[in-house]
Amino acid sequence: SALKDALKKPHVRGRWGEVQLRNCIEMAGMSEYADVSFQEFTADEQGRHIPDMIVRMPGGRKVIVDAKTPLDAFLNSLEALTDEQRATELARHGRHVKDHVKRLSQRAYTSVVKDSADFTVLFLPNESFLYAAPEAEPDIVEYALEQKVLIATPPTLIGLLKVIRFGWSEQRLAENAQRISEMGAELHKRICDFQDSYVNVGKHLDKAKDEYE
Question: Rg of the Cα trace of the chain?
Fold first, then answer.
C-alpha cells in the first residue's frame, strides 16, 4: 500500500523508471556505451526534447530510448471494486500507452539525432504495464511498430542491449586482430632490417680482414 501510494507521485515514479532503466544498462554491461539524461535535462539550447537515453552502436549508429511510467489508470484498475470499473480503467491505461507511442513518434528523434536507428524504443519499467494495455488496445504493438516505436520492458530491453554489447565485443576483437596484424608486420620489418644490418657488419668485417692481410 505504501509503495502504491508513493508511485502515485509523478516525481517518484519518474525516478523509479530512471532506476529501472539504469539497472537494465548495468545488467547488460552497457554502461560505457549508453548516454543517459533524465528529467532536469529534457531540452537542449534550441528547446528540442532530449531523449532519456542514447545507446551507441558499433559503426557510429545510435538507438534512442525514452522511458514512460503510465501508472494512474493501471493502479486504479488494481483497486477497482467491480469488473466494469476495472475494464474502464484498463481501457484508459491502454489509451495512455498508445498516446505515449503517438507523442514519441511525433518527436521525430530519428531525424533530430544524427545517425540514429530508424526506430525509437519506448521503455516501460514493468511488464504488467505492457501486458495490461492490449486488453483494451489489442493492436497496440502493431500500431507502435507502424509508428517506428518499439515498446520494451526490462527483459526485452536487456536482450536488445546485450545484442548491441555483443556487437561491441565483436568490433573490439576485430580491432585487436587489426592491431596484432599491424604489430606483426612492424616486427617482421624490424627483424629484416636487423638481419640486413647484421649481414652487412659481417661483410665489412670480412673486407677489413682482407685489407689487413
Answer: 29
Give residue 54's pLDDT band: very low, low, confident or very high (50, 70, 90). confident
- Residues above pLDDT 90, as percent of the chain: 16
3-state secondary structure of 110: helix
pLDDT band at 183 (very low <50, low <70, confident <90, very high): very high
**If you write DSSP's letter for every residue of 120-182 in order, what string do you get?**
EEEE-SSHHHHHHHHHH-TTHHHHHHHTTEEEE-HHHHHHHHHHHHHHHHHHHHHHHHHHHHH
Name the nearest CA neighbour of 104 among 140, 56, 74: 140
Number of residues assigned to the chain: 213
pLDDT for res 192: 92
Q: What is the mean pLDDT of the chain?
A: 83
29: left (phi over 0), alpha (psi -120 to 50) or beta: left
Q: Is 85 helix (H, G, I), strand (E, B) or coil?
A: helix
At a CB cut-off of 8 Å and minimum separation 6, what does 83 contact? none
Task: Give strand pairing partners of 43.
Answer: 49
For every residue of 16-67, which 3-state class applies, written as one string?
HHHHHHHHHHHHCCCHHHEEECCHHHCECCCCCECCCEEEECHHHCEEEEEE
pTM: 0.70
Residue 152: CB partners within 8 Å, gap ≥ 6?
Answer: 65, 121, 122, 123, 124, 160
